[in-house]
Amino acid sequence: MKKTEFLIINGPNLNMLGSREPEIYGTLTLTEIQMFTEKSLEQDNVSLEWYQSNIEGEIVTKIQEASKKNYKALIINPRAYSNTSARSLYTSDDADD
Question: Which pairing describes strands 46-52 and 73-77: parallel, antiparallel, or unpaired?
Fold first, then answer.
């Protein structure tokens, strides 16, 4: 039986999970979250493709490419791109570290 395929896209700053403001965002890294999710779905005949970028154009390109594949769904956590003012705030906060 063919696995059900999902594309999961994570946006800006999510590569900093676990190290940036752990008191707010927790101590798990994006890789640890991915491993936990994969393990949780082992028995469900699911295939996950993970993608993370801090560059909006790369995310747009990935979404466009996904339309040519056989994904059941695209799951996106756009992070700062869901709120432009937050994107600027988080970018400037990271530069100060």
Answer: unpaired
